Amino acid sequence: MLLILCVDLDDDLGRKTDCETPVVGRDAVESAAVELATADPEDSDVNVLFEGVHLYDSIDDEAVEVAAVTGVDGSDVAANRAVGEEVDTVLASLTASEDVRALLVTDGAQDESVVPVIRSRIHIDGVHRVVVRQAQDLESMYYTIKQVLDDPETRGTILVPLGILLLIYPLAILANFLELPGSAIGIISGLLGLYVLARGLGAEETLDRTVDRIRSGLYTGRVTVITYVVAAALMIIGGVRGVQTIESMAIESVAEAIAGLVFGSVRWFAAAGITSSFGRVTDKYLSDSFEWRYLNAPFYVLSIAAVLYGVSAYFLGKATIGELAVALTAGTLLGLGSTLAFAIAETRWQGADPV
Could you tell me the keywords of this UniProt record (predicted)? Predict the structure, then answer.
């Protein structure tokens, strides 16, 4: 039996219509195509579904079945997994006794990324890509360009890098006009490169979420906004102090360089960790979601800082083996003691105010 599989990787069919997927059978696929065309006539998956029906009607020399399978919108990995599960469902519904082969119908390379997933379940005879013929006149070209510019994903993929490239030359002219040093061009180019890299790695979403959290924190009066700023300043100071410690010492090995960096910066890093921890604990308390175990965080920071300080001091010859043993023991007991103490407090006063 030949199984014609219409692939909709981003689940336009499920999101834009009330059809439940997978859709199996000629009439069912045709009905789904009509529903999708009614909901969004410009969706290319409409052509995929109708092409599947067309291929079904044109094959009369063997048993044939047509089905539509969909993924999910967003993650390619999750979409491929969803398509694989729907293919399993379709294969389980077939009653053919002979081997089943598949002919995939897609609308582009993105949907064809699921081919390995389907091939692991069924032999694939071929992939049929549906390309809609367009008139080649000026009006058609204008409409196509307009559609591309209206698509947010296309704008971010094509127009943003193009705009960045076009900005480099005028920025260079502006820097020369303002008599800025040559390093200014390098800084500008570096910033633009970081932006392009962030776009390519999807980091702009993380940055947008961070900005939204900061804005929300400012509007709602969250303490963590202040403590995070203070913690960032303390970490910068700690980094500078660590570098200064290395420069002031006669470093003979990489281990001593690492120890010097840790020795000079660990106190500042510990202060930053404690500051941010207390800010978060305060916000949890103010939002009535406080739990006693949250108080473990600053003690853990102190514990880790004590251990790192003792080890780095020992490597630099600033502490004896006995003092190192005391630092390791104190750090361990501090972490274990705080865990036990707040666990007992949470058990006895669960739901009660901490103060």
Answer: Membrane, Transmembrane, Transmembrane helix
CA atoms within 13 A on the CB side of 265: 22
Would you say 25 and 6 are in contact if contact means Cβ atoms under 8 Å apart?
A: no
**Both 187 and 242 in a single domain?**
no
- pLDDT of 77-91, one tens digit each? 888 899 999 999 998
- 0.90 cut: is pTM over it? no
- C-beta atoms surrounding 66 within 10 Å: 28
> And the tokens for 318?
């600033």
Tell me how many domains the chain contains.
3
- Are 184 and 242 members of one domain? no
| Residue 68 and residue 8 in contact, taking contact as beta carbons nearer than 8 Å | yes
Is the Cα dihedral 203, 207, 212, 217 positive or negative?
A: positive
What is the H or E stretch that residue 217 is in? Answer: helix 203-220
Beta 23-24 vs 64-70: how paired, if at all? antiparallel
What order of strands is seen across the sheet that includes strand 101-106? Answer: 23-24, 64-70, 2-8, 101-106, 123-129
Boundary-marking domain end, from 181, 201, 219:
219
Q: Same structural domain for residues 125 and 152?
A: no
Is 236 in the same domain as 339?
yes
**Is the separation of the CB atoms in 79 and 106 below 8 Å?**
no
Report, as an integer, the average pLDDT of 298-302.
87
| CA dist 47 → 37, 98, 128 (Å) | 9, 30, 12
With H, G, I as helix, E, B as strand and everything else as coil, classify residue 299.
Answer: helix
pLDDT at 113 over 60: yes
The tens digit of pLDDT for each residue in 13-60 reads 988 998 888 999 999 999 999 999 999 888 888 999 999 999 999 988
Do 347 and 260 lie in a common domain?
yes
For residue 193, what are the domain limits? 135-219
